[in-house]
Design brief:
It is built from 11 helices and 12 strands. With 385 residues, the protein is α+β, with helices and mostly antiparallel strands. It has 3 domains: 4-120, Orthogonal Bundle (Butyryl-Coa Dehydrogenase, subunit A, domain 1), CATH 1.10.540; 122-231, Butyryl-CoA Dehydrogenase, subunit A, domain 2 (Beta Barrel); 235-379, Butyryl-CoA Dehydrogenase, subunit A, domain 3. A hairpin with a 2-residue loop joins strand 11 and strand 12 (275-276). The longest helix is centred in the middle third of the chain and has 37 residues, at 233-269. The relative contact order is 0.12. Bound molecules: flavin-adenine dinucleotide. Flavin-adenine dinucleotide binds at residues 91, 122-126, 130-131, 157-159, 203, 206, 211, 362, 365-369, 371-372, 375. Flavin-adenine dinucleotide (FAD) is lined by residues 91, 122-126, 130-131, 157-159, 203, 206, 211, 362, 365-369, 371-372, 375.
Amino acid sequence: MDLDGQFDEVEQEFVTQLRRVVDREIAPRAETIDRDASFPWDNVRALNELGINGVFIPREYGGTPTSYRCILRLVEELSRGCAATANTWTNTYLTAHAITSFGTSEQMARILPRINTGGLAAVAFAESAGVADDVSSSTTLTPHPKGGWLLRGEKRFITNGDVAEVIVAFANIPEPVGDRKHLTAVILERDTPGLVIGPAETKLGYRASSTVSLFFDDCALTTADILGVEGAGYPILRRIHAKSRPCLSAQAIGIAGAAFDEAVRSTNDRQIFGQRVLDFQGVQFMFADMISKLALARSWMLYVGRLIDEYPAENHELEGSILKIAASDAAMSITTDAVQVNGGAGYMAGATVERLYRDAKLTQMLEDANEWDRARIGSSFLNAP
Ligand SMILES: Cc1cc2nc3c(=O)[nH]c(=O)nc-3n(C[C@H](O)[C@H](O)[C@H](O)COP(=O)(O)OP(=O)(O)OC[C@H]3O[C@@H](n4cnc5c(N)ncnc54)[C@H](O)[C@@H]3O)c2cc1C
């Protein structure tokens, strides 16, 4: 299914250039960096040479902004080659998006040019007792006796946490003034005193992306470090999630597409009992189901991307949740079948489909676990007319 005809010339050029880099450099490195769980610095450099962070940076800060659906397409393409690299890029995008949407002109001028030229960034909301919501975050932001704020607490499982130049983190103000809410977003720079980075997690999949805990040991922040206004963190978090669910879905679709292509190639190449594996009609049925799931998820991704581009002020969370369930469940099912049709060879470490199968699992639980998405969709019908 060709999705690229809908993009303008500049967008098509970004997709074409990225595809070239993915085929030549990123996909060939995927197995090694997965095995070694090493951060994909070479891939980050290759992406920066393309200037691809510019697609989510406003022109006044040096960017070449594209539509959101083009960003989804780029995430998909990158994930086809290496989902870990795509996750690193996506988290940088989400941080830039939060700062672009809610930052002051000083914050934007301080941070966005650095991201435009390749700086990495992270979003930190998750904690050991669950993800931050309007009141439950145990990370606190309290007034500093000498003015400003003190940030104290811990976040866990933060993508890019150890490589990011800038982090958007969420914390509660324990005693908000007046009718202000608790949750507040802050911007931290890597060299903020009191910011301690935990060791890298070892993961089942996405092994080359970095995932760490962050500890805030009384980090002194000023009003200039508050993103938006105090107590307005929850709408910022929701805005990030509204964009991050489709991005994660695009990762799932990229993973699923790579698994499908690999399954087609290997079942055409391999002969058993005197015929190609793909000659078995039972195997052909599996391929029909795989491509049906993939095609539907991809077309819904395009639809959601268009909705968000054309009606940016409206809430598209339900469509995003539908996409995330469809795309991540398709990725899990397609990668499972891709392992199956490869037989024992597909189960071996180093097989492409084996890596994709491990990567697919994460897409069902990130952002919100899929159960949350199902609850969000299901409960929307409770008081339906
Ligand atoms: C590799 C990786 C990278 C990550 N990167 C980041 C990052 O960059 N920034 C960040 O802030 N966080 C990040 N996270 C955290 C991630 O967002 C959370 O892990 C995710 O939201 C799930 O939360 P949890 O782990 O607390 O699971 P829990 O909330 O403990 O959920 C556990 C399980 O309970 C079930 N469940 C939960 N809610 C419901 C419900 N409403 N109905 C029915 N069942 C339910 C589901 O099966 C769910 O999987 C990352 C996590 C991983 C694994």
